[in-house]
Amino acid sequence: MARPDAENASDQLASEQPASDQPPPGRRRPRGAVRAGLIAAGVELARAGGPDAVVLREATRLVGVVPNAAYRHFADRDELLAAVCAAAMAELGDRMAAGVAQVSGERDDPDAAFLRLGAIGTAYLRFAREEPGLFATAFAVPQQHPYIAPTAPAQDAAPAVDRSPLGQLRAALDDLVTAGVLDAADRPGVEYPIWSGVHGLAVLTGQGPLRDLDDTERARLEELLLVFIAKGLE
Amino acid sequence: MARPDAENASDQLASEQPASDQPPPGRRRPRGAVRAGLIAAGVELARAGGPDAVVLREATRLVGVVPNAAYRHFADRDELLAAVCAAAMAELGDRMAAGVAQVSGERDDPDAAFLRLGAIGTAYLRFAREEPGLFATAFAVPQQHPYIAPTAPAQDAAPAVDRSPLGQLRAALDDLVTAGVLDAADRPGVEYPIWSGVHGLAVLTGQGPLRDLDDTERARLEELLLVFIAKGLE
DNA sequence: TCCCTTGGTGTACGGCGTCCACATTGTTAT
DNA sequence: ATAACAATGTGGACGCCGTACACCAAGGGA
């Protein structure tokens, strides 16, 4: 559910130039290439200008196809936007995972667990700072996040750990409990205040009233927030 | 600065019907009525559908005037939207002020000071819940919030207390310090983590991935957040 | 072989933001 | 009072956008 159909979408645009070789009257492109290309083009548009910049006609232009072709793959512009949002959300999840993976230490090591939580928040804020368009797009269409624990895991042996932002935050907090840092009684629901704080700062400093802060001020606010959160966890 | 030009804008739409009396070829409306009407119409559009629903042509239609007339009062649609955003932000400020005014108690009474802080957060979240369109619009265009203390107060005797959301939050926190609840050493900058938390929850549950929560779940998250913040303040 | 699904094309419509030229008014200077 | 002027509403037009309808070319079963 985290990435419905954006597997190979974000990686190759359809050569930027409108299919520079010959424009074939019939369709010759491999199966699914147009759909993936539209999503990839939409991601680039979103990266540059946020969700409003995901213009259906412009995406088809980038892929080198006529506007109506998009309607063979998406019911309307909103459906394309939803796919782009899913891709953006997946990229946020990936960056967060990369951030926590960079922290060494055992799973039940208290210090490491705390560092992982910090890495999650930092990666989230970093993504919002470095990719404001994608960040705004990721939350522009709420494609039914599984805020409640996902239903029974798939048949696969590995339940394919939840790479969604909320899922990763939960995992970090659970580790904090098993490591003995966080009292189990305080665990239920803490993810929401923490998520709210990090997300709120990202929004306020990204697109909100605090957007014009310079880098040092912004860094100070991030530091302030993480300290506040740590204090809230004892 | 809190409400640049929306003083009398939000209160009377130009009679809804396109100026039902006679449509005069020249202009007969009182000075500034069209501008105020456009802002009021924009506010209603924003209330119903958020910032994207503030459509210039539709606003002129509601006022009963031809689309181009808007360009006598606003450089472009973005300028109209900015005025609407300012009005929405002012309404948020008013509701917050009304919320704190409802709390009785002396200014240096610790309990009352704490209740005022809670009232601020509650009013903020309530506005986001009851007026999602206006809330989203208020933050859609960041018309340079004074996040740093505003410059020297006007010549007026009363410095016209800062009714902006951030200003009111700061006042409440300052009261918490003078009341002895909050250590002065912890005061500098606390407004930002707190604002972030409240704003983040408002966004996540309003337009974000948590939008489909029912009322009780939502109330639980708000409670959780306020408790977390209180804990962060000791 | 036929046909039917898949997916790209062309044309067209209405809505939007915006520009230009024009008309009318209220105000100000003569 | 009258003439000039700034302010403000009107009409028409342009280009872009999302989208609907009709058409048509490939390609894989039956």
Automatic annotation (TrEMBL), chains A, B:
Record InterPro entries: Homeodomain-like_sf (IPR009057), HTH-type_TetR-like_transc_reg (IPR050109), HTH_TetR (IPR001647), MT1864/Rv1816-like_C (IPR025996), Tet_transcr_reg_TetR-rel_C_sf (IPR036271)
Keyword Transcription carried by entry: yes
DNA-binding region(s), chain positions: 55-74
Alphabetical UniProt keywords: DNA-binding, Transcription, Transcription regulation
The HTH tetR-type domain, residue ranges: 32-92
Pfam families per the UniProt record, alphabetical: TetR_C_33, TetR_N
Polar residues: compositionally biased ranges: 9-20
Organism domain of life: Bacteria
Region (Disordered): 1-31
Name of protein: TetR/AcrR family transcriptional regulator
